Amino acid sequence: MISNDDYLMDIKDRDFLLEVAIGYTKSISLSIALKLNIPQLLQSGPKSCEELAKITNTHSENLYRLLRTLSTIGIFIEDEEKDGVFSNSRLSLLLTNTSNSSWINNIYLQSHPNVIKSFMYLEKTIETGESHGMTSQGFSSAWEMFELDTKLKSYFHNTMTCFTQDEINTILKYIDFNEFESVVDLGGSTGVLLKAIAKSKNGIKVRSFTNFDLPHVISQNKQDCEDDRYSDVSGDFFILDSIPKADCYTLKFILHMFNDDKVLSLLENLKRSIDKNGKVYIFDHIVQPKNTPSAPFYFDLQMILNFNGKERSVKEWKDVIDRSPFKINSIRVLSDNKRMSLIELSLK
Length: 348
Ligand SMILES: C[S@@+](CC[C@H](N)C(=O)[O-])C[C@H]1O[C@@H](n2cnc3c(N)ncnc32)[C@H](O)[C@@H]1O
Hints:
Helix content: 40-55%
Bound molecules: S-adenosylmethionine
Number of helices: 16
Number of domains: 2
Number of strands: 10
Mean pLDDT: 93
CATH class of the largest domain: Alpha Beta
Order of helices and strands: HHHEHHEEHHHHHHEHEHEEHEHHEE
Radius of gyration: 23 Å
CATH superfamily of the largest domain: Vaccinia Virus protein VP39
Shape: globular
Largest sheet: 7 strands, mixed
Strand content: 15-25%
């Protein structure tokens, strides 16, 4: 006879597996509510579905069913007395803050229709070993998709900047930039990392800070840094001799976007520019430990789908660096945030 404990466990397992199986209903429902700007529309106060449907040009009953579903998980609140009247909940109110320094940009990024759609091509990606998340949607790469959708592009770059702002103190804690003459941030996006190092006492002796990124990113950067040691330089780090010379390089959330062959080609290029006593700091996700929920495992699937990239374990980092002109001086799983690693390299 099945015990009561086994029975309860069975129900728990069944509910958990069902939750996993229908996870897409939540992300797609959220995605549509964001696309229709429902959180913003409710900022001025509660609204009925009829009003919302008129503004958003949607079907009022079906919109009601969407919002009713989201309100069961705390996104929006349906009025207890009046059916079909919604107001913002604590969570949906957070979704109205899309300023460029807010982590909410990441929610808009992850629930963007094109990002969700890319997962439809996971099977093809696993079957073929090629990234299909972007190409099967008609984009040559994720960068082209960002080029064509400026809103999505700003969600992406704002998310990255926001991550960097959260991590700057950790970076400053572990690296003494004053050991170096010149620091180049490869793929530095808005330049937030170097601007912060330049401002801190940890970067006081450095003579130059170069934020290096693709032309379409650099051309959008604000010229707001008053420190004349700082400059924005555009280029492509895969093009031979395009990397500015320096004795310190930072690569933050860069190598995870590329497969091992591309990482090796970037490091070969870097070898031609780095001072012989120079150091490279890789700040990236780390997948570990096994069998434990961890966001980088999810990002790893995004990487193969959308960038042909890879989130790496300690062993995978060691394997790829071993084949490059560099050696690992230290690899540190950051204690304040176990999802991140800081790897220091120098020439072999
Ligand atoms: C994931 S973002 C990381 C941005 C920044 N390092 C951070 O952590 O916030 C990757 C950056 O690499 C840049 N990038 C991609 N390919 C590049 C290339 N071939 N040459 C230079 N920059 C590149 C992208 O434009 C983007 O800004």
